[in-house]
């Protein structure tokens, strides 16, 4: 399917409008840390069992979306993993011991609605303006048992070893002291999901850090949105709109997320990611002896589509949704006018986000800080071919532009647009002792560069050192936001790199 430049830009805006505001991530974190502190306090009956409290679900994966109704009511799924053994207590024992502390927490924090019991967890209702409700699930470590159960299957031990045993009051052994417990693996699943977007996450995080002159470690994970996460958010909203009157049969989020993760192939932008994921989704659905199977990557013995056997209409509705999504986003991708894009998007994703994305006429708000520089995660950007051993530093200290033969002027990274057909000079400085080799990587982006053979670049050009000075010259040929970076190689090892300098050309 073809994707117009206008549709690609509009889908980026839609993704930003669908995302949960950063403050909600921070409030969610405050909520689960508050519970963790409570369970670890001196008076806690669970303190001696090293409670490990963490979030699971969409907030952990970075894929929550604003509610359709605009009321911003969010569900937080919390796990409390306790250092106990299933050989010494039943599921009921664990759930009741955990419930006792959760009840005390609700009373101590003045929760008028208190808590309620679900099949697997306890639910806390917050009455403040954040409009959260929190599902708290008690669990025990179960990685060793899972590794033994899965044996020589296709299970990846990187994901399996974080498995947990959970409670379920409908389980036949719920009342018994038994090793037959339901299982789950939110950490393993998250690690798998993140492994599917490692390259784009790293590039975007580095780009954000450079954009605000910060250390990469200073950028919280939740502020980095990859095309995979954005695609999942868009597809979940499309599903919610399509099944607004049939919630029981709508495809569940874990199926959409898993198939999207399996289908994602490091597409650099959300528009391309959505189209590619929809095209590949069905190829990852298996048939095992007549049973439709979508395996949990962190537990291949678990079938996320197990309910399709009992409720065949859900399988029918999934394929109906997939076909509809393919047709809908193909239609959106072909549009070039802002009004047409907004009209189609209103039908697919809701009028509020469609209007907001249309009204947002400035820079694509994908990055919370500054301008979005797609060259950071361009597919044609090559990885450094040398093994890396840090032995020094190199920095791009100065950059000059010469316009129409006039005197040169300095320009800063990610500054105002430079004119075309000007000459650029970059000067780098390193503390690596000579001898060494210098390489430069230029990554161009935008339709003008893409239209020219070799215009996008992305490889490594050998540089020179003259009288101890490291300089490099370029020209402003294509409109867009591009990057240049200096690499120092010594004895076959990459010993220093400058970080990208951003060149905006109008």
Count of helical stretches: 16
Amino-to-carboxy terminus distance: 29 Å
Oligomer: single chain
How many domains is the backbone divided into? 3
Strand content: 15-25%
Biggest sheet details:
7 strands, mixed
| Rg over alpha carbons | 26 Å
Domain Adenylyl/Guanylyl and SMODS C-terminal sensor: 380-505
Protein name: Cyclic GMP-AMP synthase
Domain Cyclic GMP-AMP synthase DncV-like nucleotidyltransferase: 51-135
Organism: Thiobacillus sedimenti
Report on the architecture of this protein:
With 506 residues, the chain is of the alpha+beta class. It has three domains: 1-19 and 192-372; 20-184, 2-Layer Sandwich (Beta Polymerase, domain 2); 375-505, Immunoglobulins (Immunoglobulin-like), CATH 2.60.40.10. It is built from 16 helices and 21 strands. It has helices at residues 5-18, 22-39, 58-61, 91-108, 143-150, 157-160, 186-195, 198-211, 227-242, 253-263, 270-280, 307-310, 312-334, 338-349, 351-359, 447-450; strands at 52-56, 74-81, 115-117, 122-125, 132-141, 164-166, 183-184, 286-288, 291-293, 295-296, 299-303, 394-402, 409-410, 423-430, 437-443, 461-462, 464-466, 469-475, 480-490, 493-497, 501-505. Strands 1, 2, 3, 4, 5, 6 and 7 form a seven-stranded mixed sheet that branches. A hairpin with a 4-residue loop joins strand 3 and strand 4 (122-125). The chain is globular.
């Amino acid at each position: 399917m073809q994707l117009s430049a206008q549709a690609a830009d509009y889908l980026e805006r839609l993704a930003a409008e669908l995302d949960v505001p950063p403050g909600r991530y921070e409030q969610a974190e405050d909520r689960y840390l508050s519970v963790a502190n409570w369970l670890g306090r001196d008076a806690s009956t669970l303190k001696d069992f090293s409670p490990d409290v963490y979030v699971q679900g969409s907030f952990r994966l970075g894929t929550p979306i604003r509610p359709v109704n605009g009321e911003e009511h969010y569900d937080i799924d919390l796990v409390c993993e306790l250092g106990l053994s299933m050989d010494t207590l039943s599921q009921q024992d664990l759930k009741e011991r955990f419930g006792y502390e959760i009840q005390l927490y609700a009373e101590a924090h003045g929760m008028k609605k208190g808590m309620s019991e679900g099949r697997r967890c306890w639910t806390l209702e917050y009455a403040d303006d954040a409009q959260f409700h929190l599902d708290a699930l008690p669990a025990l470590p179960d990685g060793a048992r899972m590794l033994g159960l899965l044996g020589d299957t296709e299970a990846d031990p990187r994901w399996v070893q974080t498995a947990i045993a959970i409670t379920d009051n409908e389980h036949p052994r719920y009342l018994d002291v038994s090793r037959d417990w339901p299982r789950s693996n939110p950490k393993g699943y998250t690690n798998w999901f993140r492994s599917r977007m490692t390259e784009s996450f790293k590039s975007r995080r580095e780009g954000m850090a450079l954009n605000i002159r910060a250390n990469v470690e200073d950028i919280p994970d939740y502020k980095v949105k990859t095309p995979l996460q954005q695609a999942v958010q868009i597809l979940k909203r499309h599903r919610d709109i399509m099944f607004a009157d049939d919630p029981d049969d709508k495809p569940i989020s874990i199926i959409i997320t898993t198939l999207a993760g399996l289908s994602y192939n490091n597409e650099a932008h959300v528009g391309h990611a959505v189209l590619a994921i929809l095209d590949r989704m069905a190829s990852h659905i298996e048939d095992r002896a007549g049973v439709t199977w979508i395996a949990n990557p962190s537990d291949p013995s678990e079938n996320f589509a197990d309910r399709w056997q009992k409720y065949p209409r859900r399988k029918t509705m999934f394929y109906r949704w997939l076909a509809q999504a393919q047709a809908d986003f193909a239609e959106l991708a072909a549009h070039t006018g802002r009004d047409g894009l907004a009209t189609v998007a209103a039908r697919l994703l809701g009028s509020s986000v469609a209007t907001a994305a249309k009204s947002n006429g400035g820079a694509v708000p994908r990055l919370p800080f500054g301008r979005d520089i797609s060259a950071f995660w361009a597919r044609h950007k090559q990885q450094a071919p040398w093994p890396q051993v840090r032995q020094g530093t190199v920095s791009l200290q100065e950059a000059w532009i010469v316009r129409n033969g006039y005197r040169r002027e300095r320009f800063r990274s990610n500054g105002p647009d430079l004119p075309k057909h000007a000459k650029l000079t970059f000067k780098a400085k390193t503390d690596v002792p000579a001898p060494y080799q210098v390489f430069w990587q230029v990554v161009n982006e935008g339709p003008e560069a893409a239209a020219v053979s070799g215009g996008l670049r992305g490889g490594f050009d050998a540089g020179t050192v003259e009288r101890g000075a490291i300089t490099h010259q370029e020209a402003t040929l294509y409109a867009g936001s591009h990057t240049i970076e200096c690499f120092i190689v010594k004895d076959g090892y990459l010993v220093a790199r400058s970080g990208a300098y951003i060149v905006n050309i109008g």
